[in-house]
Structures are given as structure tokens and as C-alpha cells.
Task: structure prediction
Amino acid sequence: MKTKHTFQICTIISAFILTVSSVYAQNEPKPIINASLAGTIIDALTKEPISGVTVQLEAVTHQVKTDRDGKFQFVTGQKLPLTLNVSYVGYASRKVIVDTSPTIIELTPTLNALEQVLVTSRRRTEQIQDIPIPISIVRASTIDDAGAFNVARIKEVVPTVQLYSSNPRNTTLNIRGLGSTYGLTNDGIDPGVGFYLDGVFLARPAATSLDFIDVAQIEVLRGPQGTLFGKNTTSGAFNITSRQPQFTPSANFELSYGNYGYIQAKTSLTGPLIKDKLAARVSFSGTQRDGTLYNVYSDRNINDINNLGVRGQLLFTPNENLKISLAGDVTAQRPDGYGWGIAGVVENQRSEYRQFNSIIKDLGYEIPYKSAFERKVDLDTRSKADNELGGASLNVDYKIGNGTLTSTSAWRYWNWVPLNDRDYLGVPAYTISAGNSAHDQWSQEFRYSGNISEKVSGVIGVFGLWQDLKTDPVHTEEAGDALWRFQQSSASQTQWAPGLIDKVGIRTKYGIKSTSLAVFSQVDWAITDKLHVLPGIRYNYDKKLANYDRTKYIDNNIEYTAEQLAAVNSIYSNQTFDVNADAGNLSGQLSLQYKFTPNYNTYVTYSNSYKPIGINVGGLPVIDGQVATDLAEVKPESVNHVEFGVKTNPSRNSFLNLTVYQTNITDYQTQVQTPDPGVNRGYLANAEEVRVKGFELDGSIRPWKFLRLNGALAYTDGKYEKFTNAPVPLEEVGGAHAFKDISGGELPGISKWSWTLAAELTTKGNFLNLQGNYFLGTDLFYRSKFSSSPSPSQYLNIDAYALLNARVGFRATNGLSAIVWSRNLTNKDYYEQLLAAPGNFGQYAGVIGDPQTYGVTLRYNLK
Result:
């Protein structure tokens, strides 16, 4: 099926590329050389020239941008006087009638000139400082210049974002420590962080690991947003906007080369197919990098990067009131990975005979490295992580009255073909973990947003999401011959012996069909110019149908005694269940916003939201000899959230924002580990009560024209208020109790303190006869220590670390730009995750952050 999906999309996109290429030159404007208009755009206050200003002749598509010195020139068939539309972010747009050439045009800066960033988070274009929502913006220039080609790099820019990934499927994307289960992913749970690309909800967490393709900006919304977005989001949303097709032909080409064999190529072409009516854009991205870990067993490097993606778009504008966008994309990863080295060994409460070091000694095995930071692994099963996502979407915007009616229809697919060595060792203990999966989703949203009256504006919408996720064809987990020694509790046990446990495993088939329907609305009522009331309401209906069938198997070529057969059969259990669950829920929020002045904006928000029922499809634990089928369903979360925020612009060249919040969750959905080898991904459970509170401070200042400083600080305190029946931590495995009251313990994955500080120096200059700006930029990211275990452990904690990134180069508005960059400049060794091995015999692995990387990027813009 995945080959068929890929072939169909690639065929469509290939035809689209040929079409764009063939008409590009034909449609490029060929001005009539009859008249010339030249001029300069300057700041009305400082009288300094402004580069990058868009200057367009009225009633035609012909437009230019000012150069580094604020100059522009038109060669046109029209005669003076001419009407120009002049616009630039941070300045009031102007319509100017020009009757002389050359001319000087002044633009007046808006009060908030530094950060007048336009966002679409509330389903309409607004200025970020006017919105009563804590939002962080990551723009295309930040992504491109910093080499941040996926979401994993964004967490170093927005400190309240946490992303953890041991492979693309097992990815946790959280905001303020909430959203997804920490650690290994269970397909039966919904994410709490919405991930949207051009208005389309992407349901699978693997989407966060793929390369950005021609992204314009990313808006990170913090806190529940269920009354604004189709899919319910209990902890926040990523709203990603790609660059749209343009009627003015342009092209961008980018090539990067770095250490570890890093090569990345990006291309984007756009232009008209039918003048003023139909435009197209096609974008390509390819990334390769050698592996950063060396597998001693196979004598090869692993954990490399091998990504390829293409996206095509059409924009049809038959009239000024109607805009239709059609987009298709496919992105694939084919890495040799992922595998992780042993980071440490804990002495648990099992007998000395069943301690990890005693076991491997008896097996005659020695770990061939002293530290995981040697970047070596020893894996006797080759790792694989083939990951492919793609789909198509149709978006229609139709202006009706004072608003816009939007329809977004989409189909998405995901195919996942992994192979993992889950014991992290060069001996055949847990040899195979292969959770092959296939996912299809269909979504439809209708939404109207705009002004209802002079005082009232808002958004109302309906949303439907249908998902079909299944094993493809089965999930397989298998043990090897060395597992006998892990199972043996004393030397006298003859039922465990070499050669008795080989190719013992389980094959699992399951499918989950999900339906999520919602009606949502939010209103902004301006009681006065300063006081706004923003009520929002949402009704959700969720239905999940699941079937789960797990069957154990053994090597029938081995002749077992009755005692040996019983022992082998005890390793894994057959499990079968069906779930048919549905529920409706009414939730909402209320915000009060008060604007003391245009530069000082305050708000307070209360919201109640929920996350739907979960289904355990990673295997159920065996408790007192019985499969815990009562854990097949996981109760929905109930979220109560309150926050207070202040957005300020102390001066025209600065902003400073503060948010204080607290979130309380009942029946928090978490994933926990167990010594049961048949549940090596962990299983879902409900913690009775969880609380997260904190504050966020972010700001920017440009004290001089050549210097800009950005910073963000986050304090996050997350704890289990009540969790009375959690599995014991790694060091307590084998004790008198299998479960423990961890009330008061800290939530995993949350650093109490995290911050980022960025500085950039710029100066005008020339490079290869091109006008532009030289720049030097640095980014420093810090996070304090955090727990890496759902049940707090004194051993599975990750120490604080800081990362320094830097870049230097030349940016040209049009033409060639060159950037030299480095990530993790100080080559800091740090862990991103610590993972207890299946069976919990004491060993745990470490997901290691990237070492120092560096390279050069050449970018060419043609307009």
C-alpha cells in the first residue's frame, strides 16, 4: 500500500514540476521598455533607507523590492503619473501617486515596529502583540540560518517546547511538559499538542521528525486552544505555514555541506500559470548525514540521516473573493538506525543471581565501551526506521460579508517499518522489536471567521477526523537464546538452559478506527476599545473501535519437557480484547483582555478541556498471573487551566511578554514501564491528579540598528499530585511490591528552568558585487536537570546542559547568500533521554544529543 501511495503522489508531483518548468519562462513578465521610475524608500522618523520593501504598480502584478540602500527601479510601459502600493512589515502601508522620477517615499513605522509579526492563530491575520494568547514565532529566516530543519531543533528556540525521540514513531511533543506520553509511543492515545500544516491536522507524532519543506513561519501556541482549532488541543498547538504560490516568478536554491558527510539541498520555484488567476509552487528538500554512532557488532556507523521530501501547490484566484489552494506532498526517511548504547547499570532488588552484571558475566559477554559518550553501540540486530508520510489537501477561502468562509479537506497517510534491538546488547536476549504500522486519516473542517458587527468578531467551525490505524501486517517481538539466563533465578533451575529460548515471541494484530467530531466557536466582544471579553465553547464527540489479538509462538523444532514448555510459555502471554467506546464532551474557555494603551496589553484566561479515551495497544501487563484486561481502556483526561499574561512594547524597538499559568489534570494519561517482557513499550495508565504551574518571559530589543537581542525564560513545575498505583522505578524492580504510590513525584521530561538567549550583529556591505548585510549570530540554550522516567528514579535523571550555536555570513535580498554555521559549538556531551531496557534487569540506554556539527550554506534567490 505504501508503495502505491508513494508512486501516485510522486507521479502527480513530477507532472506538476514539468508543468511549472515549461510555463515558468513563458509567464515571466517581459516589461515594455518605454518608461522608467526610480526611487528610494526611507523611514519617516530616522530618514534611514529601508531594504526589502515591496513596491507594486497598482492594477498589475509587477512588483520589486528595495535594495540594501532602499532604492528601487521600475521599467514599465506605463507613463507617469503612476500609483504605487508600498508595504513592509512594521510600517504602515501606503498608496502613493508618483509624478516625478526619481522619487523619495517615506514609510511611518507602527508603534510596535520591532515585532509587528502577523499570525493566523485565531484563524484570521492579526498582529501577535494584540492577541490574548501566549505565542512564540519561529520565522523562516531563523529556521534557515540556524540549520533548524525539523521540530527537534525548534525546542532550542522556544524553551517551553519539549521534544524527545528515540526514533520517529517514539516521539514525544510537549508544551509546558504536557501533551503526549513521555518515552515510547502507544498508538491508542491522542496527542495533546496539535500539529498543523497549512490548516491540516497531522495526527501521527512521526510528522515532527520530518524535514521542513519551504516553511514561512511556525507559531507555537501555549495552553489549551480547543475553541480555535478543529482537533482538540489540551496543551497547545504548532501552527505551521508554508510559503504559498506567487504570481511574481521567483526561485530559491540552497545547498549545505558539513561534517559527518552532511549534505542538504533545497529548491523552490513559483510563478503564474495563468496570469492573475493560477499560480504554482513546487518545493524539494533532501538531507543526508553519516551516522554518529558506531556499531561494534556490525562494524558500521548507524543513526544516520537519509531524508527526501517534495511538495507541490496550486493557487487559483478566479476573483478577488475566492481563493482555492491544492497541495500534495510526500516525505520519506530511510535511515540506518536507530540504536542506543548502555548508559548505566542499576542494582535493583532482585537477587544477586539476577542482577545484570552477573547475567552477562555468565553469558561471557562484556560491553565493548565504558561510556555511551564514546558513541559506540553493540547491537546484534540491525536497526531500521523507514518512515513515510504524505497526502493531499484542498483549501477554499471565500469572502462573505465581513468575514471568510474556509473549507479544508485533507487526506494523510503514514507508513512505518522499523526493526529494533531492544536489549541494547550484542547478545541475543530481546532480538526483534518490529512494530510495522500503517495509518490513513481523512479530515474536513468548515470555518467562518470575521467581524460579526463593529464590536464583535470571532470564529465558528465544525470539524471531522476519521483515522484508520493498523498493524502492517503484524507487530513482532522475539527473544533470542541468551534470554534463558535473564529468566533463570538460580543455578539449580534446569527448565532454563542454553538453547531453550530461541525464536520465542509474539505476533500482534490490531486495528483502531477513530472518529472525532467537533463544533467550536470563539467570540471577541469589544465592550470598549480597551476591554474585550472572549468566550469560547466546544463540543466533542469521539468514538474508537479497536480489536487486539496477540499470539505467542515458540520454535517447534525444540523438544521441551513439560516443565521446560511451561517455563517458555510463561515468558509471553496470549492477549485478545475488543473495545467499542464513545463519549461526548462539552468544554470551553473565557478570556478577559484589557489594553491599557496600544503598547500594554493584559489578559486572563480560564479554560476547561479534555483528551479522549485511550486504548492500550502496546500489550497489557500480567498481574498475579492474569492479563490485566481492565487496563485495555484508559479514561479520558479532564484539564482545568488558568493563566494571566502581559504583552508590552516598552519602546518602538522592544517587546517584553510575561505569562503565569497553572494546569490541573484529572485522570492524566501516562505511559509507564513494567518488568513484563511482553510490554516492552510500556502501557497506558491514569494518574489520578497532576499539576503543572510556571511562568514564561520572552522579549526582544534592538538597542542599536546593528544589534538585536532575543531571549526567553521558562519556569515549569510539574508533579503527580496523586498517583497511588504506579509501577516501581527501575531500582525497586524485584522487591516485595510491583506498584508504588509516587504522589508528589515530578513529572518526566520537565526541566524547572530553561532559557534561550540569541544575539545578532549586522552591517551593510558588498559580496561579489552584491549588496546586502553581513551578520554574526549566536544562540545559547540551557535547561536544568529533569527526570527521564515516568516513575521517578534516582538513576534515570538527566543532568543540566547548555548548547551554543553560532553562524556568520552574508545575506543578499536578491542573489547569493553565504552562511557558515555550527551547532553544539562546544561539543557538549548530553543525554536527551534515558530508557530502561525491557525486563528491567538494571541496564538502561541513553539517547545521546548530536555532537558538534558545522558546515556552510549557499543560498541563491532569484526574483
